[in-house]
Design a protein that fits this description.
The protein is an all-alpha fold and about 400 residues long. The protein contains 13 helices and 2 strands. Helix 4 packs parallel to helix 7 and helix 9 crosses helix 13. The chain is globular. It comes from Folsomia candida.
């Protein structure tokens, strides 16, 4: 049902990673004959990819964390502009979240497991289609497929094109974290920059922009597999919900599909926990949204002295965080809601049969666990839409607290 779109996104993700390093470093190859992704285990391309991952893990991430600590604790007030400080903090959070993803993919088992889970999910969808060929599926599922397809295409268009462009623009401006770090070190050591301000910005901007493009391409592939798991679960749970105006699935077939979807949730939840940052999306988005909203309000309060670049960056960051939370929470919660509707309709139809009634009582709502810690309520009832309201409440409350403490 969704496997055709999933295959297109996988092919796109493989090619984006290859293009981000000019075809010199990557962990996947695309076999045009079999139309499948091939995980690399060795070779010069994969070794180059591993070297880049090691650079991010052991050099780039510690450097950005150290710079953020210096700005927060040791840097004199007014030495750096609010825009450069905000960009540095945001970059440090994003790069730190990328570390477990890079660590997972730089191991030979990482790309192999990624492709295996993705391919298994697509094959399972084809198996479902073969089972349901002679029956009418819920028409709401087809609408959901179209909606999810448009949302994923829009999201990854931003991720593949707009985000790298933003990285490139910021990398060649005076608020670039790399340039501000070099300038701060030279000022502390009383050294004069040989290349001058413009030359230093240009020289430092090249590796910064290229590194940002590689980071976004690889991170996008890691997010893709979790997104596919959520969408697959959502559309197929909708598809098997009985309706009165169609030829419904046999009880055993519907139960088999639902049980197989349970395996999908386990596989994709495990992949999300392997990448770590995917399961920390709520806390990360709250921190980024709070910082962006606080900086935007304080800048607007300055009137004519406000920084237009900072305000634009804050608005863009808030929209991105909002978009991610909508997708991560809304569709996961809708999967749980669809599971409950499936139980309700099946009990109405098959509740008089003792065996079928007991079989339905053994089932729990399906959901892809994208949270670091799950509660007993989530285990029994699935993800609820209250999670999204919690995100909005925490962002607004934290922003108000910061504004009250702001002098």
């Amino acid at each position: 049902m969704f496997h055709d779109d999933a295959l297109k996104h996988l092919r796109r993700g493989v090619h984006v990673i290859q293009r981000s390093c000019f075809g010199l470093a990557y962990c996947f190859e695309w076999d045009a004959k079999t139309n499948r992704a091939i995980p690399l285990r060795n070779g010069s391309k994969y070794r180059s990819f591993q070297i880049l991952c090691y650079l991010f893990v052991f050099f780039v991430a510690p450097a950005f964390l150290a710079r953020s600590y210096h700005l927060a604790v040791m840097s004199p007030p007014g030495q750096e502009s609010p825009a450069s400080i905000g960009v540095t903090y945001a970059a440090a959070i994003i790069i730190t979240g990328f570390v477990p993803m890079a660590w997972n993919l730089k191991r030979a088992s990482g790309p192999r497991k990624y492709v295996s889970v993705y391919q298994a999910t697509m094959e399972m969808e084809k198996h479902f289609e073969a089972l349901c060929r002679n029956y009418d599926l819920n028409p709401a599922a087809l609408t959901a497929v179209q909606t999810c397809s448009k949302m994923l295409s829009s999201y990854f268009y931003q991720f593949d094109y707009m985000a790298p462009l933003s990285f490139a623009i910021i990398s060649f401006t005076p608020i670039s974290p790399v340039y501000t770090t070099i300038h701060s070190i030279s000022k502390a050591l009383n050294l004069k920059l040989i290349t001058g301000k413009i030359g230093t910005i240009l020289i430092s901007g090249v590796p910064a922009s290229l590194g940002g493009i590689f980071l976004m391409a690889t991170m996008g592939a890691c997010i893709l597999i979790s997104g596919y798991g959520v969408v697959c679960l959502y559309v197929w749970t909708l598809a098997i919900i009985p309706t009165s105006n169609r030829v419904e699935l046999p009880f055993e077939t519907a139960l088999h599909v639902y049980t197989c979807l349970r395996h999908v949730t386990i596989l994709h939840s495990e992949m999300a926990h392997d990448f770590v940052a995917v399961c920390l999306h709520h806390g990360t988005m709250v921190v980024l949204s709070t910082g962006a909203l606080f900086n935007m309000i304080t800048e607007l309060a300055k009137g004519a002295e406000m920084s237009a670049i900072l305000i634009f960056a804050c608005v863009a960051l808030i929209l991105v965080c909002l978009w991610i939370e909508i997708f991560a929470i809304y569709f996961t919660a809708m999967s749980s809601t669809a599971s409950k509707e499936f139980f309700r309709q099946m009990r109405l139809i098959h509740g008089e049969n003792k065996y079928k009634r007991k079989a339905l009582r053994c089932l729990l709502p399906n959901y892809v666990n994208l949270e670091a810690v799950s509660s007993a309520d989530t285990f029994l009832n699935g993800v609820q839409m209250e999670y999204f309201s919690n995100y909005l409440i925490r962002v607004t409350d934290n922003t108000i607290d910061l504004l009250l403490a702001y002098k």
